[in-house]
Amino acid sequence: MTAMPKLPRRILARGALLLGLLAAPAQAQDCVVLLHGLARSDASFTLLEEVLEGAGYRVVNHSYPSTHARIEELLGHVDRAVADCGPSRVDFVTHSMGGILLRAWLARRPPVRLGRVVMLAPPNKGSEIVDEYGDWALFRLLNGPAGAELGTDPASLPRRLPPADYPLGIIAGDISLNPLLSAPIPGANDGKVSVESTRLAGMRDHLVVHASHTFLMNNPVVMAQVLIFLREGRFRHGLRLPGALALLTGGGNPG
């Protein structure tokens, strides 16, 4: 894999190699757009970006001002990211609110060369965290106007967006790092979003992994499943850590 020009990424790439997290080369040269979550940045996807590049994908991973505008006002970021892909087929991998941003964008202007989509912990039916704490001044300060749009009310943006009419795989987590904060969420959840809320009508596949919301994208099983879905359009249910590591190091059969 070609070394990145910035020192932090070179260090991360070497660390990933030591951990056995670099992927086998992909057959296709698709472009993958990464859309991070609320109050995050492109850095949250750094490790997955390295894995995808190691698998032969061209990756577009840019930060956007997720806490400074409503979701509708952020759609231009997706336009620019897709334009950066040029004539290549465009796949997407999103985390949390990034999935809602993508759904809003696809509802208005789906690309001609749309490939496959993997959403990680998307609040497709909203989050009870927003219902419970959305009116708090501190919540609004930290999460901005877009965060306030992610409630579970039928009038909320996630509930008003159309179902998926594209190849979509969704990965949910079921471990909360802060049970007190996640107490308002019914059923299995990742600390921010319930497993049930991640589901979306029209999705092609759905998978639950033992991981938390914040670090879902860095889980080796999740990274392996992202590669599998981008290649095949289905997850490999039953895949465990040894198999994921074998796939990520080139020793696993993606078929």
Q: What's a concise summary of this model?
A:
With about 260 residues, this protein is of the alpha/beta class. Helix content is about 35%, strand content about 15%. The protein is built from ten helices and six strands; from the N terminus they run αβαβαβαβαααβαβαα.
Summarize the topology.
Layout: H1 7-19, E1 31-35, H2 46-54, E2 58-61, H3 75-84, E3 90-95, H4 97-106, E4 114-120, H5 128-133, H6 137-147, H7 157-160, E5 168-173, H8 195-198, E6 205-209, H9 220-232, H10 241-248
Parallel strand pairs: 1-2, 1-3, 3-4, 4-5, 5-6
Helix pairs in contact: 1-2, 9-10
Features:
alpha/beta; 255 residues; single chain
Helix content: 25-40%
User: Order of helices and strands, N to C?
Assistant: HEHEHEHEHHHEHEHH
Helix-and-strand structural type: alpha/beta
Share of residues in strands: 5-15%
The main sheet orders its strands as: 2-1-3-4-5-6
What does this structure look like?
By secondary structure, the protein is α/β, with parallel strands linked by helices. The chain has 10 helices and 6 strands. The protein has a 6-stranded parallel beta sheet, sandwiched between helices. Helix 1 packs across helix 2 and helix 9 crosses helix 10 (241-248). The model is unreliable at 1-28 (pLDDT under 50).
